[in-house]
From TrEMBL:
G-protein coupled receptors family 1 profile domain boundaries: 53-302
Classification via SUPFAM superfamilies: Family A G protein-coupled receptor-like (SSF81321)
Organism: Otolemur garnettii
Membrane-topology descriptor: Multi-pass membrane protein
Protein family membership: Belongs to the G-protein coupled receptor 1 family.
Annotated localization: Cell membrane
Residues annotated as transmembrane: 37-60, 110-132, 153-174, 204-233, 254-272, 284-304
Protein name listed in UniProt: Olfactory receptor
A matching Pfam family: 7tm_4
First-listed, main subcellular location of the protein, grouped into a coarse class: membrane
PANTHER family, per database record: OLFACTORY RECEPTOR
GO MF: G protein-coupled receptor activity; olfactory receptor activity
Function: Odorant receptor.
Lineage: superkingdom: Eukaryota
Amino acid sequence: DKYIGKRRRNEMTTNDVNRTDVEFLLMGFSDSWEIQIVHAALFLLFYLAALIGNLLIIMLTALDVHLQTPMYFFLRNLSFLDFCYISVTVPKSIASSLTHDTSISFFGCALQVFFFMDLATTEVAILTVMSYDRYVAICRPLRYEAIINQGACVKMMAVSWLSGVICGLMHVTATFSLPFCGSNKVHQFFCDIPQLLSLVDSKIIFIETGVMVLVTSLVIICFVSITLSYMYIFSVIVRIPSKEGKSKTFSTCIPHLVVVTLFMISGSIAYVKPISNSFSVSDLFLSVFYTVVPPTLNPIIYSLRNKDMKAALKRQCAWVVPL
């Protein structure tokens, strides 16, 4: 098979060449051409759905005057982040499946790790900010404008993006300063830190392990904060006299919490479980839940089911194509 032969020719030990000349091989889901085609087709569908949904939200929240509120300011940031987040891993994976070229350079891998960790951390921070925004709006409505003002929104977003950059730099510095040894095969469809650490001597990964524990601890704190926010929100919702009002609010908040839980728990499990040198199907499918699913579902759950967003879409369509 030409595909397997080409892959084998690219395999080497990372001691064979200068470390910055190393090419990692992203092993993906299978060597089978048929499975590679299915993988590329599914990932392309996910990517197009995320691309269209998030860009539509960015456009609507930027152009429609009725959506110039803190909630939609946060949504616009989340949509821009999700667009970038899924673009870091999925297009490369699709191209690798279709071209049979699974190699990625040392610097390309380092850049992918940086942007992935940067955007993933920023997403956790923004989701925490958004849960706080909803908590204030529902539980402290009379103080909402005083607490969530324009200055506070800009500061919270600046801190969220800055935290991502710092986290990305910490991970790249800690991981790529280590001497890689053994095989150059990464059993994942992108450069993910747990799989990269399996190529490093387990006796010298304590620095990156410390960074992973620190970041995971912060993610857990954010998750607890989000959970507490929604607990307070639900305690207010149950006191709403209208059954329609309860149903509407629950149908909005519960999907938010499900996606947040899926994203944070799957990512935390992947990054704190023991490092393995062997291929694991569960690791591959687990990574899909924190790389592909959230950016695809967020536009649907956070915005496209929203009455105001639908009205804004109709207004923009009417402006572009007058009746």
